[in-house]
Amino acid sequence: MNKKNILLVMVLAFLVTQFTWGQEKLLNKANQRYQEYSFSPAIDIYKRVLDKGYVSADLLKNLGNSYYFNADYKEAADTYKKLLAEYSNDIGPEYYFRYSQSLKSLGDYKASKEMMSKFSSLTADDVRAGFYKGEKDYLDEIKKNSGRYDIKSFDYNTFYSEFAPSYYKAGLIFSSDRDTGNLARYRHTWNSKDFLDLYKVDTDSLDTNHVMKLGEDVNTRLHESTSVVTSDGKHLYFTRNNFKDGKYITDENGIIRLKLLRATLIDGVWTNIQELPFNSDSYSTAHPAFSPDGRTLYFASDMPGSLGQSDIFSVTVYADGKYGTPKNLGNTINTEARETFPFITSDNVLYFSSDGHPGLGGLDVFATKIESGKYDRAVVNVGEPVNSKMDDFTFIFNEDTREGYFASNRDEGLGADDIYAFVETVPLKLVCDQAISGTVRDKITNEVLVGATVKVIDEDNEEVYTTITDSNGNYKLSIDCNRGNFVRALMQGYVPSEEYLGKSDGKPNIIDFYLERDQVTAGFGDDLAKLLQLSTIYFDFDKYNIRKDSEIEVQKVIAAMEKYPSLRIKVNSHTDSRGKDSYNLWLSQKRAESTVEYMISKGIAESRLKGEGFGETKLMNQCENGVRCSAKEHEKNRRSEFIILE
């Protein structure tokens, strides 16, 4: 055996899958060239220690992470389960996340959901513990977004109700009760006797008589409202009371529900009215809107699976005219109250009205950015003057012209509900970008790692951004601070490391990574304590017996020696400079001997061990006699070393 070139291969199962085969080839090559000691602190060593009954939060974290990063989700789930059961007060939210992901991979969706719920409750503490932490918080946020719109009354309002504008050709389609002579207010519960019909108007016309009611196939003696025309102009989707064969239909509670219908344009007439297949006599579907590509229909409903009084759902519209299964947009958008009247811009911004999110009163208009089909971005109140203390709803917006319309029942209006035109003068900030920077280094040598990969991974375990470190080991990136993200550093030949960042205020953050090597070349004189990243082995004041909380660190060394019977080590014990020099030398010698005796009691042959105390003769810093130092600086000198002997 070459005494100066003993290759200690620490195959850490922290390695991501793409590195596994490369490390195995490297390990096989090393086997051919060296007589080696190969041990793995993350799986091999830790598992041996665990099997002996020695356990700690750090051990279970590292072991669970080892399985997790290698996609061994069964073992990861079992380990995280034990971690959460025994050390729930000593772990961060990321372990609930990883446990949830592991359970999901095993098909245990119920347990996964419970862990994600716990994860969400913990990460919520990073910012606000709910929508309403305090009135000042949300009112200040609304104030920041206010003053960005110039609004004016719609030219075609009357003393009756006008609302629900939607774009159609050069004008609008909107809903009104102007022809009924009924002065009663429009009721959002839609169980009154007001009769609403759909009208169209060329908004460039100055002739108020240019307003025309849509055909009799569309309008009936009950309500018709909230419409959208497909981009090809061939189909009109709209909302109507449950009305069939000239009769209205009620549910078991006597309520006339709402339904979504589709009309087809034939020879200039909207006809061939058809119900959408997910309508029901027992719940409402209403207020249609389309995604920019026309493949997704959004609507409001209180169907089963709703979180509150009404939620916003989406459903896929296939090329053959069939529909998928409606999906709830989730609890970032929907609340236990009302979410309704969706509208999607060409830039995939979802506007909707809600009285569940923090607002100024009644229904307020909110916005959120849809990214990659996800609905987890922050929901933002658009502010005054669009929002008021009354109900503000049916907001539509043209991204190109920065113009739009909405409806409100505010007191200064002409009728019960009125449409208002607006121009957006300042864009609404929907994305919160947080600058993240730092350096990636070797954990042992402190050398910078050039070309290391740094990734941003969202809470769905999907990669959203990647960069590499420059010639100084530095990296820069930007994350969405409206959501939780994991920032992960990777380098071939090193163990990945990551940090979780919850929702934040967007202030710049510095994250430095110190990566452990997955292969360490060691030989005579090298310190196993350093290579195994052992925690400090503490002794009680003026004592030299090993404390219970330090046993697990010594057990890691024992596990390595059990695996490699030819390995011989010397235990060196050091103290700080406080106390008499002669006493420190004696105390360190006793601590070294105590450590050796402990290892012998656990089955390691005495011939393989030596122990020596050095007192304060080999300080790591300037903290010698007479020099004032902090407790932390003195602590660096109180150390144990496990030096490899020839």
Automatic annotation (TrEMBL):
Keywords: Cell outer membrane, Membrane, TPR repeat. Gene3D superfamilies: Carboxypeptidase-like, regulatory domain, OmpA-like domain, Tetratricopeptide repeat domain, TolB, C-terminal domain. It is found in: Cell outer membrane. PROSITE patterns: OMPA_2, TPR. It holds the Pfam family CarboxypepD_reg. InterPro entries: 6-blade_b-propeller_TolB-like (IPR011042), Bact_OuterMem_StrucFunc (IPR050330), CarboxyPept-like_regulatory (IPR008969), OMP_bac (IPR006664), OmpA-like (IPR006665), OmpA-like_sf (IPR036737), TPR-like_helical_dom_sf (IPR011990), TPR_rpt (IPR019734). This is OmpA family protein. TPR repeats lie at residues 57-90. Residues 526-646 form the OmpA-like domain. GO terms for cellular component: cell outer membrane. It comes from the Bacteria. PANTHER family: LIPOPROTEIN YIAD-RELATED, STATOR ELEMENT OF FLAGELLAR MOTOR COMPLEX. Transmembrane segments: none annotated. Its main location: membrane.
